């Protein structure tokens, strides 16, 4: 089969042939129809500090996908060949303290598809039965593949109620915009998006957001205070991992507000902890993946109801052979969500 490998340390990736994996007794084999590129995949491609400490080449990366089950292990009970699935990509051990107390998404021994084990940038991928999420056949493969990152946005946004509350989103990458869409669907009274990159701001405006600001030109703290009667937003969704964004986001969150941190910083972050956290009395959540599987049911409900439409976030479609072209766009922040297909695709 064709697969995208992180074959050796360093920048880049290689398209190579690989054996089709064989599913174990409790695993299913999926023929991949579509994948989407995650920020984590960009980290792996660029071989940043995090990747150097975590990734063990050679390995197949990629984890956001959808496809058709073609083979199941002898112990599999709930999935059958022909089922249309996506995957929860955190593979939990099921035995640690976190798993046994309802927090499998925080498993102490977690293995992540496309990070710790071979992933989905391939014509076929095997996953545990437990991690397969059955989709309706009417769900387009591109949207089905996006459910995993959309779940991050849903978990980050809805970990507490946002109805009738003011919300700021710092970082308008795909998950940042998804989070804003979830907040809007849940009835937020105000959504302010802060993003320095023009292409990302334009995408946020395209999907209907009015308060989209460039922090290089407009002070986001002043803007948010001006639009919240000087109080600040009740909910701050941090999607960038940038030092300045975290500082400005906290200072524009009202006292007693809530913060969800999903963005991954490139290095250590420093804060005026007393002023920006302790004396503000903010509640802070670190968001790691999705709740298994509570978040997936919320994802399904939001998509089935039409309250959130992810299609406008897709800006480019490529075949596996064009991985370098796709990554260049993402590295330069010139794309929203990019779909990769195992096969060649027709130009739009």
Largest sheet features: 7 strands, mixed
List the total number of helices. Answer: 12
Relative strand content = 25-35%
CATH-scheme architecture of the largest domain: Alpha-Beta Complex
Query: Whole-number radius of gyration?
Result: 20 Å
Give a count of the beta strands, DSSP E runs of length 2 or more. 18
Which structural class do you get from the secondary structure elements? alpha/beta
Q: What is the CATH T-level topology of the largest domain? A: Quinone Oxidoreductase, Chain A, domain 1
Number of domains: 2
N→C terminal distance? 26 Å
Q: Regarding CATH, which class of the largest domain?
A: Alpha Beta
Task: Give, in order, the helices and strands.
Answer: EEEHHEEEEHEEEHHEHEHEHEHEHEHEHE
Shape from CA axes? globular
What's the CATH H-level superfamily name of the largest domain?
Medium-chain alcohol dehydrogenases, catalytic domain
């Amino acid at each position: 089969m064709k697969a995208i490998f992180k074959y050796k340390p360093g920048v880049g990736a290689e398209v190579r042939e690989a054996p089709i994996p064989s599913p174990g007794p409790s695993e299913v084999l999926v023929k991949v129809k579509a994948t989407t590129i995650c920020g984590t995949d960009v980290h792996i491609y660029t071989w940043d500090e995090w990747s150097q400490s975590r990734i063990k080449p050679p390995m197949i990366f990629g984890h956001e996908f959808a496809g058709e089950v073609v083979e199941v292990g002898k112990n599999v009970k709930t999935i059958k060949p022909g089922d249309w699935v996506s995957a929860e990509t955190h593979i939990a051990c099921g035995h640690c303290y976190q798993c046994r107390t309802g927090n499998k998404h925080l498993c102490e021994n977690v293995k992540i598809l496309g990070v710790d084990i071979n992933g989905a940038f391939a014509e076929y991928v095997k996953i545990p039965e437990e991690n397969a999420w059955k989709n309706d056949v009417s769900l387009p493969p591109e949207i089905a593949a996006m459910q995993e990152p959309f779940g991050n946005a849903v978990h980050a946004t809805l970990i507490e109620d946002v109805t009738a509350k003011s919300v700021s989103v710092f970082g308008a990458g795909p998950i940042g915009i998804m989070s804003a869409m979830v907040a809007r669907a849940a009835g937020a009274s105000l959504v302010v998006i802060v993003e320095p990159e023009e292409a990302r701001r334009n995408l946020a405006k395209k999907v209907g957001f009015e308060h989209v600001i460039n922090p290089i030109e407009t002070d986001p703290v002043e803007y948010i205070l001006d639009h919240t009667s000087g109080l600040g937003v009740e909910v701050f969704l941090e999607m960038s991992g940038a030092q300045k964004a975290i500082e400005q986001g906290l200072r524009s969150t009202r006292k007693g507000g809530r913060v969800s941190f999903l963005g991954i910083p490139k290095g250590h972050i420093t804060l005026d902890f007393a002023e920006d956290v302790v004396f503000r009395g903010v509640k802070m959540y670190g968001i790691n993946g999705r709740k298994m599987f509570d978040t997936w049911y919320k994802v399904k409900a939001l998509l089935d109801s039409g309250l959130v439409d992810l299609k406008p976030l897709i800006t480019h479609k490529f075949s596996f052979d064009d991985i370098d072209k796709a990554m260049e766009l993402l590295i330069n922040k010139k794309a929203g969500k990019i779909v990769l297909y195992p096969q060649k695709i027709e130009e739009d």
